[in-house]
Amino acid sequence: MKKFAKQLTALLACLSLLPACNKWLEVEPTGVILSDEALNTPEDMQRLLNSCYDVLGNAFDGRVQNICELLSDNLAEPLNNLEYQAVYDREVTFFNTTTNNVYTDLYRAVYRCNTLLANFDLIEGLSETERSRMEAEARFIRALCHWWVLKTWAQPWGYSANHDHPGIVIRELPVQDPLPRSSVDQCYTFIISDLTFAEENLPASNGVYATSWAAKAMLAFVYFQKQDWNQAYTKSSELINSGVFELQEDNLDQFHAQDSSFQFEPNPETIFGVVSYYNLSEGIVDSRNEGYRDNYWPGTAGAQLSASEEFWNFINLNPTDARIDEWLLSEGGQYQVTRFGSPNNQVFFFPSPLVRLTHMHLIHAESICLLNMTDQLEMAIGDINLIRDRAFGEGINPVPADASVIDIIQYARDEFRKETIGEGLWVDYLRRIGSLGEQEVIIRGAPWNCPGMAIQFPNSEGTGSAFVFNEEGGCN
Questions:
Q1: Is residue 445 one of the residues assigned to a domain?
Q2: Residue span of the structural domain in which 409 resides
């Protein structure tokens, strides 16, 4: 163990030479077992916390988003990636390297967070303010990772009457022992507890790192999928009314991936995301969007991932929608998704926002309707019209002022689908709608709750006899 402790000490010393407070780390410290023997000072803890963000950036560079998007009806068949094809076909086995690596990265970030959380008492000179902030950041990252694992590797809230169907492994200690899956209900309780702590203890401003606003936005998402409309409405309202974030009213380049002069400018509507950074004089080339670029940018044979014909027809129901030309291109028999840039633009360092003000407006609008708050329908319509004004031009294609509750819900969902193409979020909406029983939800010919809609776990999880794998197949 002392050998590993020395390795980590050397690593932390190396990382101390890097800017630690306003950039994502570009060094991925893999292959190192974390040890409390290497954690002695507040600076050690800060570097360990930075490494948690580092692994987070690896997973959320588009890779986990791609997996989720392939389960929806937004994408066409992958070009030639057999492991992506298995996800698309809903036939993932526990030998799928692509999904297993994402799963491992998400839990690697969790492990590092847990190491930090378990070792505060060893650190001398750590103020209560620093400790509170670090704990809140670690718990935010831990919750974010558990949340994406839960919604990707398990069936959703509402799949069973009491939400007691198998969820995922909850890891809140820095151990790698095999553990059984907790119920979905238990997973939601754990995630909400971490995010609530983060909301209460994170600063409102924290550079590119997690803030109280980021925790609030994640709570809005989590409550919304948990079908707790009251809390989703409350959290999204607080963000919208804060005045801290604002929509880009005349710019659809939400990833800053289409204009090289714009790529390092902060997006005023991003609440939290993965940040890319480039500074040759500092020796930093840190691109956190390879999962998007490597799959959506077309090669000589086309793009690995492209929009489905169904999505193309859906967004073209109104051909005056500016998102068609800004985000899509019909080329070579594909409907290529260009919102993540293209070889023609050569934007390599764009960020990957995870929660944006656009999301909050559309969650807010639908929550108002699901709560049947008829006295606030005008506000819900206003939320949606902010998005439609940006896409069509102000006042050109608004939601009718006399729209019914059911119609407003559909408008909100339609805009959410368009606004999040490629972000891995639409499949959550489909599964939530299916679990509500409002309508029969069929995703590319298969029910929303068929076995293959939950990704299979890595084979390594089966080392514990109590672990239950997902059922495979049964969708097609």
A1: yes
A2: 2-280+349-463
